[in-house]
Design goal:
This protein is an all-beta fold. The strands form four sheets. A four-stranded antiparallel sheet has the order 3-4-5-6, with no helix packed on it. A hairpin with an 8-residue loop joins strand 7 and strand 8. The chain is globular and about 45 Å long. The chain starts with a strand and ends in a 16-residue tail after the last strand. The N terminus is likely disordered.
């Protein structure tokens, strides 16, 4: 497996602008499995974060892989996850699910926090999601405002490829996040999720 960071730049020309794409190899990971890779805002710019058996990060401008969360016995990180400033410090944390084996059995929803740059991250449990291979394939940030003006923030997840729910960030995000059921989809094996204001 050879993960690549794709850098895109516009070449400004007289007649329509051309888009050029350059591929840069970041690391040769051999047989290591990566379930997902995303961009996160950091205190000093940004980084690509990827997870599977462990969590690794490539700060933008560097080609060196940094392990930020080590492997833990049989636990694996599942596909779903997002970058979100959970604690209001201006940098993104990672919200992800972790369970036994690559199938995400008996998963928990957690958020990973970088407390000190260059040091291992720490994990905070959001919730235990249930039994069996039901880890969320999709996790997205969610924000809304109640009629009284109160702002809500959290993440929306699709559990067991069927149940749609959202988790609300409490005043102390290190505590268990309240879970709000949205719907149960009529068919199983659902994946793909988008969050937006459809009702205006």
């Amino acid at each position: 497996m050879h993960p690549y960071l794709i850098v895109m730049s516009l070449a400004l020309m007289a007649a329509p602008p051309a888009l050029s794409v350059r591929h840069e190899q970041l690391a040769d990971l051999g047989a290591e499995h990566l379930a997902q890779a995303i961009y996160r805002r950091t205190a000093d710019g940004g980084a690509i974060v990827a997870w599977g058996e462990r969590v690794v990060q490539w700060p933008l401008g560097e080609r060196r892989l940094h392990e930020v969360f080590a492997r833990q016995r049989e636990l694996h990180f599942y596909n779903g996850g997002c970058a979100l400033d959970v604690n209001g410090d201006g940098a993104d944390e990672i919200v992800v699910s972790r369970g036994r084996t690559r199938s995400g059995s008996d998963p928990e929803l957690i958020w990973l926090e970088e407390q000190t740059p260059g040091q291992p991250w720490i994990s905070h449990r959001i919730d235990l999601l249930g039994r069996g291979p039901i880890a969320p394939h999709d996790i997205h940030p969610f924000a809304a405002k109640r009629p009284d003006g109160t702002k809500l923030r959290g993440v929306v997840v699709v559990l067991d490829r069927r149940v749609l729910a959202w988790y609300e960030i409490p005043p102390d995000p290190t505590q268990i996040w309240p879970r709000h059921e949205i719907a149960e989809l009529p068919l199983r094996s659902q994946s793909g999720l988008a969050v937006g204001d459809l009702a205006g």
